[in-house]
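User: Just a sanity check before I run the rest of the batch. Below are the structure tokens for the first item. I only need the designed sequence back.
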């Protein structure tokens, strides 16, 4: 009764929750929007089918309801293919067929009884927003992080207000029930699972924009994409992380940092106040004189201070002349020096030193095309690194005066829409006689070459659409007809392309803050990350680096890629995490300015001065 193909697809859900935000303008899963539980979204249905394939749960009344609410509309197929190339519609169909066959054969359907705790929870949030059915629970029980194991909760609750959160915490305390608070997908680092109760904040999605104060008041269910979209309507921008990540959860976990941290800051720079429910069930906010001091930093780690139920997020004005450029480099040292100079000179709003793993994956609609693009950038153009800068007219003019080659928005659009023909490479023979001894990317970026490239590559939505499966071609052609899909400002603001990093396998990111005035140290760290990953035969690559604090520091990310269902890869990744933690820890003992993510967890409300200048 279990489809092997569907089970294989279901096993590879990354839990990035992109199916819970309307990032492509396709709409959202109707059942997910109506019922809020993860189980009703495509991500949850993937987990359900995986659970059935491995006999983790029985067929329950709730499971039957979940299966029957799926309309097979196909929204999930378009969203998930864009991110991972998975085709979840096959899983959605297989789940319905499994349940229908189960009912047709008159096999048992389990009715799950409630208990006194569930009754009390339902008096707080309503009957539809508290559950103990395994078909709900199992979708909150696991994530892809290699150091975590499945924890099946007893209850899942969807609060709708701060008072409801407070009442839930008090019920847990009275009954000695542990609890965890969950954002949009799963933290993918094992922090949001509990054998007691899981609070899913998905219902609390209020956003109020105070345009005169450049401030957003948001609930804990607001995603980064939703906040950016709403702020954009007012000509404003927030500093946010991954598009499906919930903003409050991000701040609670590690603080928000992004490529915009160059101008907008990190840590406590991103908010003005926040409201919480403490572990005693009582409320407080950061501006109360007697509130816990979340601005401070505990270098040995700190427990979760409470549950954030509202945050007041700083917004920043945008200008109509903002545009993006990509500055190619042949060495990391040159690119890092350029980043530091931009930070020190306050040039640009967003800065990111990207490797070709990121660049090629971002702009490619398929993994096959991404692999070819990476090879093309590295070997043909000779540009393994690129510095992405978002800035206004004055920033772009300043960079041009630095006499560096530039891929501007016009050339970037050509690269994206002509990518299938670009990576084929036949056209490069036309440039070789003109190349001389320089890297080809320098010739590639010259204005006089643009017309030749345009004629040869014929960039268009149709050209890029030809790279995807035939049944999705029309959708991709329509998608890439939108200006935003080739607009570096919009793409960098919404970060919808960054979710593609998990296309090949689940990404385990090692990240933290490093001293940007010590590029040799950073290069040595990157080399060590690579050496450790290679030794355990785990795919790995440099991710990105962004300057902060006027170029004094930088945020550095190095990535490992694993099949999170493969026990061998999990074991090897566990060893990598242990060795990289030891390597970073040793460097922290003798070098100021290094602060790694594991020491910042649960301290995202800290002032950056508290952990960057220790």
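Assistant: Here's the designed sequence for the first item:
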């Amino acid at each position: 009764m279990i489809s092997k193909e569907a089970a294989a697809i279901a096993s590879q859900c990354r839990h990035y929750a992109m199916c819970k935000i309307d990032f492509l303008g396709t709409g959202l899963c109707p059942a997910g929007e109506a019922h809020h539980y993860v189980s009703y979204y495509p991500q949850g249905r993937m987990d359900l089918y995986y659970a059935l394939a491995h006999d983790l749960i029985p067929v329950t009344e709730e499971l039957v309801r979940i299966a029957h609410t799926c309309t097979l509309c196909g929204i999930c197929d378009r969203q998930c293919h864009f991110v991972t190339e998975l085709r979840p519609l096959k899983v959605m169909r297989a789940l319905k067929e499994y349940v229908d066959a189960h009912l047709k054969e008159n096999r048992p359907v389990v009715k799950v009884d409630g208990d006194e705790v569930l009754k009390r929870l339902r008096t707080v949030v309503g009957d539809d927003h508290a559950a103990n059915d395994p078909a709900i629970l199992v979708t909150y029980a696991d994530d892809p992080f290699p150091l975590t194991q499945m924890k099946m909760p007893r209850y899942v609750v969807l609060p709708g207000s701060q008072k409801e959160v407070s009442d839930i915490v008090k019920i847990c305390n009275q009954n000695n029930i542990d609890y965890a608070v969950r954002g949009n997908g799963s933290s993918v680092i094992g922090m949001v699972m509990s054998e007691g109760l899981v609070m899913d904040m998905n219902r609390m999605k209020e956003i109020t924009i105070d345009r005169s104060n450049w401030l957003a008041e948001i609930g804990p269910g607001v995603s980064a994409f939703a906040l950016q979209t709403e702020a954009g309507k007012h000509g404003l921008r927030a500093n946010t992380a991954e598009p499906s990540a919930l903003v409050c959860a991000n701040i609670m976990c590690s603080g928000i940092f992004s490529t915009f941290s160059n101008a907008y800051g990190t840590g406590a720079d991103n908010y003005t106040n926040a409201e919480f429910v403490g572990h005693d069930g009582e409320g407080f906010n950061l501006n109360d004189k007697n509130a816990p001091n979340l601005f401070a930093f505990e270098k040995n780690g700190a427990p979760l201070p409470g549950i954030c139920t509202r945050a007041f997020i700083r917004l920043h004005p945008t200008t109509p002349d903002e545009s993006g450029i990509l500055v190619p480099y042949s060495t990391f040292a040159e690119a890092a020096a350029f980043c530091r100079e931009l930070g020190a000179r306050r040039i640009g709003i967003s800065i990111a030193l990207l490797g070709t793993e990121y660049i090629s994956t971002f702009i490619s609609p398929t993994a096959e095309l991404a692999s070819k693009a990476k090879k093309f950038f590295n070997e043909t153009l000779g540009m393994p690194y690129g510095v992405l800068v978002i800035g206004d007219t004055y920033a772009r003019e300043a960079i041009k005066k630095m006499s560096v080659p530039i891929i501007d928005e016009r050339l970037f659009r050509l690269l994206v829409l002509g990518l299938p023909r670009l990576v084929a490479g036949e056209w490069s023979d036309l440039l070789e006689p003109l190349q001389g001894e320089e890297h080809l990317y320098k010739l590639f970026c010259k204005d006089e070459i643009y017309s030749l490239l345009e004629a040869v590559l014929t960039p268009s939505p149709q050209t890029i659409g030809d790279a995807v499966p035939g049944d999705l071609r029309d959708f991709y052609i329509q998608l890439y007809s939108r200006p935003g899909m080739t607009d570096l400002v919009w793409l960098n603001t919404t970060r919808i392309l960054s979710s593609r990093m998990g296309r090949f396998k689940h990404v385990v990111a090692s990240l933290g803050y490093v001293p940007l005035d010590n590029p040799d140290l950073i290069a040595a760290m990157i080399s060590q990350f690579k050496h450790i990953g290679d030794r355990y035969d785990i795919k790995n690559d440099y991710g990105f680096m962004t300057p902060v604090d006027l170029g004094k520091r930088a945020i550095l990310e190095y990535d490992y890629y694993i099949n999170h269902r493969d026990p061998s890869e999990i074991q090897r990744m566990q060893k990598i995490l242990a060795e990289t933690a030891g390597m970073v820890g040793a460097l922290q003992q003798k070098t100021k300015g290094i602060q790694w993510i594991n020491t910042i967890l649960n301290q995202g409300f800290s002032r950056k001065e508290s952990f960057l200048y220790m």
